[in-house]
Amino acid sequence: MVTEEFKKIVSEAIEALPEKFKKAMDNVEVVVEQWPGVGMARGGLLLGLYQGVPKTVWGRGTGLQIPDKITIYKGPIEFLARGNKDKIKELVTDTVEHEIAHHFGISDKRIGEIKKGVD
Description:
By secondary structure, the chain is an alpha+beta fold. The chain has a single domain, classed as 2-Layer Sandwich (Zincin-like), CATH 3.30.2010. The chain is built from 5 helices and 3 strands; from the N terminus they run ααβββααα. A 3-stranded mixed beta sheet has the order 1-3-2. The model has no long low-confidence stretch (mean pLDDT 87).
C-alpha cells in the first residue's frame, strides 16, 4: 500500500473517533512512519507509539511544552494484515484508538479492561 493511502486510513480512523475525544485532544500530532527504530518488543511488533505528557498529568509547569506525538507504524501493520486492506483498516483503527487513549492518561492495563467490558 502506498504511504498516502495508508495516511488516509489513519486520518479516517481519527475522524471516526467520538466527537468528545476529538474536541478534547490537545497539543498532539499523529504521524506515520514506516518502521520503529526502537521499542521492538521481543517476539512482537510495535504498531504505534505515544510520546508525550498525558492530559492527566498536565498542570502547573506544563505550559509551552512541545506537542505530544503519536506515531503509527505502517510496516508492522501491513505485515500483520498480510496485505488485506480491511485488516489494515482494523489494525490502524485499533492502534490509533490505543495511542490516543494514552494521550488521555489511560494505561495499557485499563485499555485491556475497557475492551473486555470491565468497569
